[in-house]
C-alpha cells in the first residue's frame, strides 16, 4: 500500500512492539455510554452493548486484538474476542507469553502487519474502559520515605517515624474494589465527618483536604487455593502486569475515622487506574534490586536467597505527576522498600486466596527528595508550604483541578516502555 | 395424594411459609465438587457444571425455585432459574416483594402445593453453596459492649474504653470478599507474624489465638450511583436481606499488624456466612428501636426524625453460639448501637457506590452480660479466664473445634423466624 502504515512508528516510541499493553475499548460510534460508562453496578450485559473489546496499544493506535486473532486464525481468539481482560488474565503465565509472542508477530511481521492494519483504531477515536472486573483491592504502604514523612507529620514525638512493625512486614489494608474507576473518570469531591483538636464536635461537609497518592497497581491473573500461601518464587505465575494508580484520599475524613480500624471513607470514594495494563514481560529490562534491607526478614519474605535474588524484585519506573499540566513531582518506584512479590506473598501467607482480577497498590511512591514526594500532604507538608503553580497556590485539590500521572521504564536495547497515563478531574460535591 | 405433603409443617416451625429464605443448592448427585466447591477463583462455568440453582427453604426441605416458577408459568423464572441469587438481588425492592408473594402462594395454596411438591428436595440430600458473588465486604464495629470490652482490655489506661469517634460514626473497614465462604467450609488455621512485648523480634507460625466473631451480615441488592450518597430512608430500597456471619479472627496476627492501617491478615483468611439469606420482609415483626443514643448525631445519621423513626432500625435477632455442641454465648442483636441503615448510609456518604452482592457485617454482637459476649477474646478476657466445657478448657480455638451459630427472630402472630446456621470446623495449618 502507498499510505504509511500506522505500525511504522517513530524511532523511540515508548508504545512500540516491545511494549504492547492491554486494555478494553469501544470503537468510535459504538459506545452507548460516556467515558464513565464502566461505572460499578452497571447492569449485566451493558458491557457487551457498548461494543467493548480487548485492545492492544501500539503507538497512538489501538489494535482490536480479538478481530486480529480471528483474521489471522489464531487459537487465542477465545481469549481476546472478549469485553474484558478476565479470560486472558485467568489463562496463566505460559499462555500470557504465547499470546504476547503472537501479538508481537502481528505488529512486526510484514504479512501480518498488512492483515491487521484495518483493525487499528486511532486512540483519539475510541472510548477506554476499566479493563477488568476488580475482585479484591488491597493498598499497601510500602515506600519508606512516604511512611516516614507521615510519621514525622503525625507522630512528631514518637522515637522513630516508622511504627515498630514497618520493617518486618509490608503493611496493607483492603480498599473498595467497587469504586476503582478508569483514567478519565471525574472524581466527585467526597463529603463526610472531620474533627480537628480545635473542634468541639465533628463537622460535616465536603472534604477540605482532598489529596492524591501516586502508586503502581499490580493485577493478579491466575488464582490460588484457599488455605495455601503463595511463595515469593511464584510471583510471576500469578501477577499478569501493572498499571498506574491514583489512590485519591480525603485527609480530613481519614484523620477522624481511622483509629482503630484503618482508612475507610477517606479512601473509598474513588481509586483511578490507567486504562492500559503493562504485562510484566514488557518490563524485564526494568527490574532492579530493591533498597537494602535494614532489618532481617522472616524467611517467607526474604528475597536475598539465591533462588529469588536472580530475579530482582524492584521495578525502575519513573513516575511524573502533573497538576493542571504542571509537573509537581517525579516519584521513583525503584526506591520503594517492599517489592510487589513480597506484598503478594505476605497477602497470602495466612492462606487467603487470590482471584483473577485482584488488584493491589504499592502505596504512595515517594523518593527521598521533596520533589519526589507522591502526595500533596507530603509536598506541602500538610498544607504548611503551599505549592506555587503558574495558576496559583495549592495545598490540597480544588474543584476543577486535573491530576495526571505518567511513567516510563527502561526497555530492551535502550528503548523506553511507556505506561498508560492515569488522569482525573475533581468535580464539585453533588447537591 | 395419600402421603403427607412435606409442606404440612409442624406448628411453630421456624422455617414455615412466613420465612422463606433464599439460597443456592445442588441436588443430590449433581454436584461435581465438595461442599467447598464454591471456593473463590473457581473457573467460569464451574457453577453451572455442578447443577447449582436457587432454592427456598421450607421446613427441612429446599424448593427448587426456578423449576417451580417454570412449572407454574411464573414470570419470575428468569430471576429464579439461575445458579446464583445475583439477578434476583439486582431486581430491586418491588420485585423482591412480588417474588416473595408468589413463593408464599406456591407453598400455601393447595393447587400450587401439589404442583411444587415434586420440586422439594430434603435439605439433608443437597449441597449448599455461597448464594451470591460477594462484591465488596465491609465489616463494622457497631456493638458498644464489644468495643468497650476490647477498649478495656487493650487500652486500660485510656480515659474511656471507646475511641473519641465511636459515638459519632459507625466505624468500619473493608475486608476480603474473595475469602467469604459458605457455612460448612473448613477454616484452615492461618499462619503469620506475631510479636508480643516480651518478644525481641516477630515470631512466625500458626495463629495461637484463633477466635470467632458472632455477627449479622447484610446483603445489598440494588446498586447505587457513584458520587451520590444513599439516605437512611432508602435502606430497604438497597438491602435485600441478612444472614449470620462468623468473622474468624487471628488475634495474635491482628495485634502486631493493625497499627496504623487496621486489620488485614488477622481477618482475611476466612469469613463464613450462612447458606440462607433471610429477606428483610420476613423480619418486619422483629424490628425494634435501637439503643438510646447518648451523643447527638449529625443529620445524615440521625434516625430519630419522624420519617425514619416509624421504621425502627434495630432487629431483635437472638443469636446462639455453640462450640463443639455446647452453648457458649447468646448475643442479642437488638443491643447493637448502630443500625444496619446507619451503616449503609455512612458507607455511602462520601459518594462510594453500592453494587449488587455487597456484604457488610455488623461487627461482633456482644450484649451487656458476659454470657452474651460474641467472641472468645471477650468470653475468656483474652485468655485469662478459660471456658470450662465438658470436653475441656478453651481459651482460643483448637484444631478440630466446630463453631456453630444459629438465631431466631420474632415473626408474625407469635411465630419464630429461623435464620440459617453458620458453622465451620478448624483445620490444621497446611504443612
From TrEMBL, chains A, B:
Q: What class of enzyme is it?
A: hydrolase
Q: Show the segment(s) annotated as Disordered.
A: 1-50
Domain of life where this protein originates = Bacteria
Gene3D superfamilies per the record? Fumarylacetoacetase, N-terminal domain, Fumarylacetoacetase-like, C-terminal domain
The entry marks the following residues as binding Mg(2+), namely 247, 267, 271
**What positions does the domain Fumarylacetoacetase-like C-terminal occupy?**
138-425
Q: One Pfam family this chain carries?
A: FAA_hydrolase_N
Q: Name one GO molecular function term.
A: metal ion binding
Q: Keyword Magnesium on this protein?
A: yes
Q: Where is Ca(2+) annotated to bind?
A: 139, 213, 215, 247
Q: Give the GO biological process terms.
A: homogentisate catabolic process; L-phenylalanine catabolic process; L-tyrosine catabolic process
Which coenzyme or cofactor does it need? Answer: Ca(2+); Mg(2+)
Q: Which InterPro entries does the record associate with it?
A: Fumarylacetoacetase (IPR005959), Fumarylacetoacetase-like_C (IPR011234), Fumarylacetoacetase_C_sf (IPR036663), Fumarylacetoacetase_N (IPR015377), Fumarylacetoacetase_N_sf (IPR036462)
List residues binding substrate.
141, 155, 254, 258, 364
Signal peptide residue numbers: none
Q: Where is the composition biased (Low complexity)?
A: 26-49
Q: What is this protein called?
A: fumarylacetoacetase
Q: Which organism is it from?
A: Streptomyces alboflavus
Amino acid at each position: 500500500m502507498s499510505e504509511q502504515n500506522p505500525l511504522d512508528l517513530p524511532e523511540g516510541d515508548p508504545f512500540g512492539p516491545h511494549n504492547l499493553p492491554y486494555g478494553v475499548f469501544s470503537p468510535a460510534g459504538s459506545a452507548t455510554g460516556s467515558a464513565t460508562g464502566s461505572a460499578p453496578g452497571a447492569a449485566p450485559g451493558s458491557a457487551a452493548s457498548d461494543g467493548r473489546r480487548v485492545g492492544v496499544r501500539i503507538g497512538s493506535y489501538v489494535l482490536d486484538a480479538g478481530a486480529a486473532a480471528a483474521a489471522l486464525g489464531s487459537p487465542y481468539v477465545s481469549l481476546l474476542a472478549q469485553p474484558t481482560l478476565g479470560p486472558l488474565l485467568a489463562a496463566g503465565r505460559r499462555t500470557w507469553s504465547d499470546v504476547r509472542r503472537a501479538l508481537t508477530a502481528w505488529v512486526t511481521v510484514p504479512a501480518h502487519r498488512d492483515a491487521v492494519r484495518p483493525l487499528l483504531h486511532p486512540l483519539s477515536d475510541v472510548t477506554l474502559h476499566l479493563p477488568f472486573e476488580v475482585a479484591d483491592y488491597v493498598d499497601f504502604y510500602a515506600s519508606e520515605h512516604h511512611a516516614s514523612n507521615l510519621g514525622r507529620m503525625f507522630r512528631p514525638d514518637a522515637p522513630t517515624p516508622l511504627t515498630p512493625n514497618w520493617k518486618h512486614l509490608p503493611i496493607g489494608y483492603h480498599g473498595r474494589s467497587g469504586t476503582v474507576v478508569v483514567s478519565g473518570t471525574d472524581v466527585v469531591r467526597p463529603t463526610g465527618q472531620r474533627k480537628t483538636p480545635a473542634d468541639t464536635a465533628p463537622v460535616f461537609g465536603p472534604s477540605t483536604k482532598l489529596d492524591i497518592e501516586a502508586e503502581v497497581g499490580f493485577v493478579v491473573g491466575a488464582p490460588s487455593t484457599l488455605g495455601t500461601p503463595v511463595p515469593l518464587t511464584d510471583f510471576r505465575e500469578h501477577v499478569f502486569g501493572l498499571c498506574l494508580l491514583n489512590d485519591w484520599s480525603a485527609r480530613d475524613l481519614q484523620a477522624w475515622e481511622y483509629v482503630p480500624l484503618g482508612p475507610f471513607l477517606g479512601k473509598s470514594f474513588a481509586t483511578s487506574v490507567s486504562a492500559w495494563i503493562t504485562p510484566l514481560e514488557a518490563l524485564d529490562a526494568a527490574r532492579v534490586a530493591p533498597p537494602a534491607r535494614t532489618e532481617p526478614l522472616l524467611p517467607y519474605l526474604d528475597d536475598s536467597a539465591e533462588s529469588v535474588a536472580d530475579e530482582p524484585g524492584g521495578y525502575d519506573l519513573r513516575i511524573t505527576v502533573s497538576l493542571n499540566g504542571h509537573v509537581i513531582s517525579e516519584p521513583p518506584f525503584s526506591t520503594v522498600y517492599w517489592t510487589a512479590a513480597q506484598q503478594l506473598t505476605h497477602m497470602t501467607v495466612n492462606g487467603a486466596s487470590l482471584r483473577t482480577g485482584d488488584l493491589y497498590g504499592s502505596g504512595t511512591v515517594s523518593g527521598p527528595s521533596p520533589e519526589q514526594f507522591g502526595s500533596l500532604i507530603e509536598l506541602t507538608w500538610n498544607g504548611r508550604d503551599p505549592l506555587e503553580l503558574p495558576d496559583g497556590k495549592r495545598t490540597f485539590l480544588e474543584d476543577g483541578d486535573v491530576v495526571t500521572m505518567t511513567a516510563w521504564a527502561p526497555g530492551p536495547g535502550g528503548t523506553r516502555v511507556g505506561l498508560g497515563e492515569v488522569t482525573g478531574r475533581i468535580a464539585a460535591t453533588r447537591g
